[in-house]
Amino acid sequence: MLKSPLHVELLKLLAASMLLISFAMLSTRRIQQLITLFAWQGAILFFSTTLVAHEARLTELYFSAGLTLILKVITLPLILHILIRRLGAQWDNEPLVNIPVTMLVGLVLVIFAFGLAQPISLLATTITRHTIGIALAVILLSFLMMITRRKAVTQVIGFLAMENGLFFAATSATYGMPMVIELGIALDLLVAVFILGIFFFQIREQFDSLDLHHLESLREE
After folding, report:
1. pLDDT at residue 62 in the model
2. What digits encode the pLDDT tens for the residues 68-105?
3. What is the DSSP secondary-structure string of 46-100?
4. What is the residue extent of each domain of the chain?
5. Where are its TM segments located (predicted)?
6. Which helix (H) or strand (E) holds 113?
7. Closest CA to 10 of 162, 128, 122, 123
8. DSSP class per residue in 6-27
C-alpha cells in the first residue's frame, strides 16, 4: 500500500484528470486542441508513473516515466503539430456521430469499464489497483473517438490516446511492462507516426482532404 494517504489521493486525482481529459478529447473538434489535450494526458501519465515509482521503489518505472515525458509530452505532440500546420487541417467539422450522443455513449462506456474492472481490482495487489477502472475507461473512450471521427489525424490521435490508457492500465495492474517491451512500443509509435504522416500527405494530395470516407470511392471503383 502507499505509505502516504496524500499520495493515494494524488493518484486518484491524476487518474480522474486523465478521465476528464478523455471526455474533453471526445467533445473537441479543433485538432490543435486535441493534440494539446493528448500532451496533457501524457503529462499526467508521467506524474502518476513517477509517483508510483517513488512509492513502490521501482527504478525501472522512473525510466518508463522519462520515456513517457520525452515521447508523449514532447516528441509526438511536436510532430503532430508540425503535420497539422503543413496539412492545414485545423478542424474536424463532421464527426460521424454528433457530440452529445458521443458523450452519452462515453458515459455508458465508463460505467461498463468500472463494472468490468471491479473483480480485477479485487484481485490486484498493486498500490494503484483502484485506478484500473479509470484506465479501462480511458481505453474505451479513446476507441470511441477513433470510430466516431472522419479525419485520419483525429483517428491517429485517438489511437495514441488509447495507448496511453493501455500503459496506465499496465501500471495500475502490474506496475508496468518490462523496459524492453516499452522501448519497442515507443519505437513502433514513432515509426507509425512518421508513416502515417506520409499517408496523410498522400491523402491530402489525392483528395484535397483528410476525410477517410474518400478512400471508399477507391474501393467502389
Report:
1. 85
2. 898 889 988 888 888 788 777 666 656 677 888 989 99
3. HHHHHHHHHHHT-HHHHHHHHHHIIIIIIIHHHHHHHHHHHHT--B----SS-HH
4. 5-220
5. 6-27, 34-53, 65-84, 96-116, 122-144, 156-177, 183-201
6. helix 99-123
7. 128
8. HHHHHHHHHHHHHHHHHHHHHH
